[in-house]
Specification:
Elements (H helix, E strand, L loop, with lengths): L3 E3 L2 E3 L4 E2 L4 E7 L6 E8 L11 E2 L6 E8 H8 L11 E8 L5 E3 L2 E3 L4 E3 L4
């Protein structure tokens, strides 16, 4: 069994999946903390990416960061929000300890709050 990294985003302000939200995936080197951009993707109509962010040998032990561009997303869907937005880019840094496991990092977001967890 090979591991994979997946995500999805739910718009809790409107009660729907966050379609068309940009997500950047970074690898973070240890111990320097240098970041390498691995990819940028958009969520689909279900608030998910069309394929896993990392699979097989691309999923390595290490530290990663997902950066969710919620400011641009909410500006498109809720145009009466203040500018600049309260939340713009939401970074979630996490570790991959077992590259054979499934790591799912969902984001539940509104223009004013967010939460995450390790999903299944």
């Amino acid at each position: 069994m090979s591991g994979k990294l997946t995500t999805h985003v739910l718009d809790t302000a409107q009660g729907c999946p966050a379609a068309g939200l940009s997500i950047a995936l970074w690898s973070i080197a240890s111990p320097s903390g240098d970041k390498t951009l691995l990819k940028t993707v958009l969520t689909n109509a279900d608030g998910r990416t069309d394929s896993p962010l990392l699979t097989d040998e691309a999923l390595q032990v290490g530290v990663y960061e997902l950066v969710f561009s919620v400011g641009a997303y909410f500006a498109q869907h809720l145009p009466d929000l203040p500018n600049p937005p309260f939340l713009n880019e939401i970074p979630i840094q996490f570790g991959i300890a077992d590259p054979k496991a499934h790591y799912h990092v969902p984001l539940l977001a509104s223009p004013w709050s967010y939460s995450t967890y390790r999903g299944s």
